[in-house]
Specification:
By secondary structure, the chain is mainly β. The chain contains one helix and nine strands, in the order αβββββββββ. The chain has a four-stranded antiparallel sheet with strand order 1-7-6-5, covered by helices on one side. A three-stranded antiparallel sheet has the order 2-3-4, with no helix packed on it. A two-stranded antiparallel ribbon has the order 8-9. The protein is elongated, with a radius of gyration of 18 Å. This is Single domain-containing protein.
Amino acid sequence: MQLHLAVFSVALLMASGHALGLGYRTASDVQVVDDTCIFEGTSVPTGTSVRQETPCRRITCVARHRTMFLQECPNYSCPARRCRMASRSGPFPDCCPRPVYVPRPRLYAD
């Protein structure tokens, strides 16, 4: 049964459209009360997720294992000079910074 819950949790995270290993980690410093994980002051019922804005992440409780899955923003880089990282707001993943193209300034009017 424990293995089924772990497999279900991973499948749930992958079904959200994100690849496992990109921005995922686990936290084991979780307190469990009445099948609810308490992590960094946030209560999350087992098997559910909370999308946060600060810090920008989604946390999912697996109370049976006293573990939280944390999905954080992927690390993007701007390889071109005309690229910058744009800050965003809203709950995860809307709050994740994204690379945006910066157009060249126009020197002359058409």
